[in-house]
């Protein structure tokens, strides 16, 4: 974490910040792709739980983006803002962006899970 | 990095030398050699507007044909060609080239504060290849080989069995031309935005229009290959007897739809996001305040870029896919409304808290709010599978996508034209004529397309060339056709206004709207070198936020066409790079590539033999000549510290 704090102050963008920004969309893409592809499989085998597992795993992946953002946010100096010219300002902007993104894509994953609670895969 | 002192490098900027260094070639051959972004951007806009007028003529013919029942002014075969080429023209030859390429190529380098677009020769090549693609489609129509399988050319209808001859081949190869063009421009724009922004224009200070162009560029890079692949597969099915879409031999017709719509739905956002970018640019200017919710809008734009790739199956609800599969895409389609709604709220909040100046471009912005909102609401209806099944392939769908596309693209386009034409021509457009144009177009548009909702709900299918009087669709169709006349009248007023203003309009001056972005920091029209001095930036609206003693960049050479390269995240100067100058090779390469592509319609050997001249012109293009590259200074370190 000390290393992360150092890079945030320097204004570099460590992998954690990039994960915070793009973990959510990645998780959502996995959820949509795997669910769509495996629906026929769950119907034919009767393993309906697979679709729910995909939802849970992908929602957790999206939330790790939020966790990464929160961890990074704690290390941004207090004087940072999202419109300044300093690298830490840009980092602050990236982290806010990433946290919003992670929450939004978690909601999208849950929204796409609702039909699984109601419909049968073989319908 | 903090900006407080000018960068002092050995060479002083000399306006005269800049003009000589960056001078655009003149004369007949000079026209084909020009690679400057302002020239190519204007060409994209003018050419795509001409295609828009041509597509509009076809739309008028459709409305004429449908204005009354049992009308036989146009036969079914020609009608099929007309609606196919109308749709293909509006999507592939007008909407994307105007909204993404035209505006993007012209304004992005100016807003970045640089002197030319990255890879200017690729940019010029992209223009020529686009023109050839457009001509190919239209020449086909006049040679009675006009594409006639609809603008998405579904198989098996467009396959060899049901569309013999060369009609679908012309369409498929037009796709290749236009998408190569879009890909080329996407690479140029993304590179310009990432590496040529003015110092101080960090990622968090990038104007929203640059964010949107960046997102769009990546969308184009990921979406366009899908349609190029599917059109090439179609072409191969038709010319060398492959069986990609023939179920009898293991092919799959739904594969075509999947690949097409994997491109096709992001395409909707590739058309809409530039419109939203224009609105996000204009609203703060005329509300006289910074945009409300910059971060929220940026997040929404990027989210739209992602979600746009996850909704394509909603175009295929009627193909019999499982109910649960459809529901995934219903959910994604409903969720994509949210980022757009966030942008709407931010625009309204900006206006609410600002001091609104109701100038002509804002009239079009308010038109956009109204029209696009209706299109969005009918989109929410269509995202529901039961509703979609009921109105599938009816005029309800036609009404919906015209509200979305004309609302999301055409209204912002006119807002953008009234806003930036003074920058391009140096003269203001006539306000009264602009208002006449708006009201004729707005009333005509709603007469034409709102009516179509009712026609669709009454069961009128799209793509029928006529209908019996017993269906009682005649009255609404006549009303829609009269509306089209209003729209045509509005366009005529716009064209008159443009030429009259260009000749005798009031001089615009550098910044007639008192706007805050960098394109207004130079004269109107901009000189060939764009900016005498290269600016640094102290906020999201540089001309509003910059300090009186704001540093400028000096030391970029003026005896060769040199630009400052900055890093992607923090826009810190890294080195200088020499821009390629005027060249005939992009034009010649576009000709040889066109020959290879068109030849391949008639023989697969066209690709093999056609590659030879392509390689020769590419060697000419890439052959090193002229003065040596400017010395690459590793960085301008030490000159940026406080």
Explain what you see.
The complex is a heterodimer of chains A (123) and B (642). With 123 residues, chain A is mainly α. Chain A has one domain (20-118). Chain A has helices at residues 2-10, 15-45, 49-74, 87-118. Chain A is rod-shaped and about 55 Å long. Chain B has 642 residues and is mainly alpha-helical. Among the domains of chain B are: 15-260 and 545-622, Cytochrome c oxidase-like, subunit I domain (Cytochrome C Oxidase, Chain A), CATH 1.20.210; 394-512. Chain B is 63% helix and 2% strand. Chain B is built from 19 helices and four strands. Chain B has helices at residues 15-22, 27-33, 37-66, 76-112, 120-142, 167-195, 208-239, 253-287, 294-307, 323-335, 337-352, 360-382, 385-391, 395-425, 431-457, 474-504, 542-545, 585-602, 605-622; strands at 534-535, 552-553, 562-566, 573-578. In chain B, strands 1-2 form a two-stranded antiparallel sheet. In chain B, strands 3-4 form a two-stranded antiparallel ribbon. Chain B is globular, with a radius of gyration of 25 Å. The N and C termini of chain B lie close together (8 Å). The A-B interface holds A 11, 13, 25, 28-29, 32, 35-36, 39-40, 43, 82-87, 89-90, 92-94, 96-97, 100-101, 104-105, 107-108, 111-112, 114-116, 119-123 and B 1-3, 200, 202-205, 294-296, 298-299, 302-303, 306-307, 309-310, 313, 322-325, 327-328, 330-332, 334-335, 338, 538-540, 569-570.
Looking at the structure, what is the overall shape of chain A? rod-shaped
Number of strands of chain A: 0
Q: Name the assembly state.
A: heterodimer
| Mean pLDDT level of chain A | 87
Number of domains of chain A: 1
Order of helices and strands of chain B: HHHHHHHHHHHHHHHHEHEEEHH
Top CATH class of the domain at 15-260 and 545-622 in chain B: Mainly Alpha
Please name the CATH architecture of the domain at 15-260 and 545-622 in chain B.
Up-down Bundle
Specify the overall morphology of chain B: globular
What strand line-up does the widest sheet of chain B have? 1-2
How can the largest sheet of chain B be summarized?
Answer: 2 strands, antiparallel
Count up the helices of chain A.
4
Content-based structural category of chain B: mainly alpha
Structural class of chain A: mainly alpha
> Averaging pLDDT over every residue of chain B, what do you get?
92
Which radius of gyration of chain B do the C-alpha atoms yield? 25 Å
Helix fraction of chain A by DSSP (H/I, runs of at least 4): over 70%
| Tally of contiguous helical segments of chain B | 19
Q: What share of the residues of chain A does DSSP label as strand, in percent?
A: under 5%
């Amino acid at each position: 974490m000390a290393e992360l704090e150092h890079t945030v102050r320097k204004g570099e963008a460590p992998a954690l910040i990039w994960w915070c920004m793009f973990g959510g969309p990645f998780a959502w893409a996995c959820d949509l792709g795997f669910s769509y592809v495996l629906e026929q499989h769950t119907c034919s085998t009767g393993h309906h739980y697979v679709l729910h597992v995909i939802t849970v795993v992908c929602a957790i992946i999206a939330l790790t983006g939020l966790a990464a953002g929160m961890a990074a946010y704690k290390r941004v100096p207090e004087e940072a803002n999202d419109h300044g010219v300093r690298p830490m300002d840009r980092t602050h902007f990236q982290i806010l962006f990433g946290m919003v993104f992670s929450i939004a894509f978690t909601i999208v994953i849950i929204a796409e899970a609702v039909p699984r609670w109601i419909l049968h895969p073989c319908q | 990095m903090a900006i407080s002192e000018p960068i002092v490098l050995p060479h002083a900027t000399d306006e005269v030398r800049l003009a000589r260094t960056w001078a655009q070639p003149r004369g007949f051959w000079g026209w084909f050699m020009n690679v400057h972004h302002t020239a190519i951007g204007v060409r994209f806009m003018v050419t795509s507007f001409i295609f828009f007028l041509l597509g509009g003529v076809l739309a008028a013919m459709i409305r004429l044909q449908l204005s009354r029942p049992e009308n036989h002014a146009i036969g079914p075969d020609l009608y099929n060609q007309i609606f196919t080429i109308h749709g293909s023209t509006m999507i592939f030859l007008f909407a994307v080239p105007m909204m993404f390429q035209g505006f993007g190529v012209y304004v992005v380098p100016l807003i970045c504060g640089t002197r030319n677009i990255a890879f200017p020769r690729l940019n010029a090549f992209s223009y020529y290849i686009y023109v050839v693609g457009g001509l190919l489609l239209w020449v086909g129509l006049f040679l009675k080989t006009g594409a006639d399988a609809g603008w998405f050319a579904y198989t098996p209808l467009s396959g060899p069995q049901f569309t013999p001859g060369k009609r679908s081949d012309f369409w498929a190869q037009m796709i290749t031309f236009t998408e190569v063009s879009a890909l080329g421009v996407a690479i140029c724009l993304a590179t310009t935005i990432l590496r040529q922004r003015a110092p101080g224009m960090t990622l968090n200070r990038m104007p929203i229009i640059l964010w949107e162009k960046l997102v769009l560029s990546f969308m184009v890079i990921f979406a366009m290959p899908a349609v190029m692949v599917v059109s090439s597969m179609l072409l191969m099915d038709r010319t060398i007897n492959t069986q990609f879409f023939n179920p009898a031999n293991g092919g799959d017709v739904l594969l075509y739809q999947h690949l097409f719509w994997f491109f096709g739905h992001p395409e909707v956002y590739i058309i809409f996001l530039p419109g939203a970018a224009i609105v996000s640019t204009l609203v703060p200017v005329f509300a006289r305040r910074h945009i409300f919710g910059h971060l929220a809008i940026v997040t929404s734009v990027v989210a739209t870029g992602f979600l746009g790739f996850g909704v394509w199956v909603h175009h295929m609800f009627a193909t019999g896919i499982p109910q649960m599969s459809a529901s995934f895409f219903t959910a994604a389609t409903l969720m994509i409304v949210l980022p757009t709604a966030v942008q709407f709220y931010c625009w309204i909040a900006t206006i609410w808290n600002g001091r609104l100046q109701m100038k002509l471009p804002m009239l079009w912005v308010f038109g956009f709010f109204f029209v696009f909102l209706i299109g969005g609401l009918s989109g929410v209806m269509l995202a529901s599978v039961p509703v979609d099944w009921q109105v599938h392939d009816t005029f309800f769908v036609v009404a919906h996508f015209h509200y979305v596309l004309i609302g999301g693209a055409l209204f912002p386009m006119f807002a953008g034209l009234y806003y930036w034409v003074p920058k391009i021509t140096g003269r203001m457009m006539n306000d009264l004529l602009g208002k006449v144009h708006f009201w004729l177009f707005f009333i005509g548009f709603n007469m034409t397309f709102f009516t179509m909702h009712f026609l669709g709900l009454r069961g009128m299918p799209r793509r029928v060339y006529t209908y019996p009087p017993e269906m009682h669709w005649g009255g609404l169709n006549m009303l829609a056709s009269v509306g089209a006349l209003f729209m045509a009248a509005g366009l005529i007023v716009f064209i008159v206004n443009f030429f009259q203003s260009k000749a005798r309009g009031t001089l615009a001056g550098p910044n007639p709207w008192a706007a805050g972005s960098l394109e207004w920091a130079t004269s109107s029209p901009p000189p060939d070198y764009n900016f005498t001095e290269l600016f640094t930036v102290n906020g999201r609206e540089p001309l509003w936020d910059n300090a009186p003693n704001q540093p400028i960049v000096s030391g970029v050479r003026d005896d060769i066409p040199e630009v400052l390269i900055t890093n992607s995240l923090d826009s810190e100067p890294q080195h200088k790079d020499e821009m390629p100058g005027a060249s005939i090779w992009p034009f010649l390469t576009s000709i040889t590539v066109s020959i290879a592509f068109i030849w391949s319609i008639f023989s697969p050997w066209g690709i093999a033999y056609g590659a030879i001249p392509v390689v020769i012109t590419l060697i000419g293009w890439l052959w090193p000549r002229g003065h040596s590259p400017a010395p690459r200074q590793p960085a301008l370190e030490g000159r940026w510290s406080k």
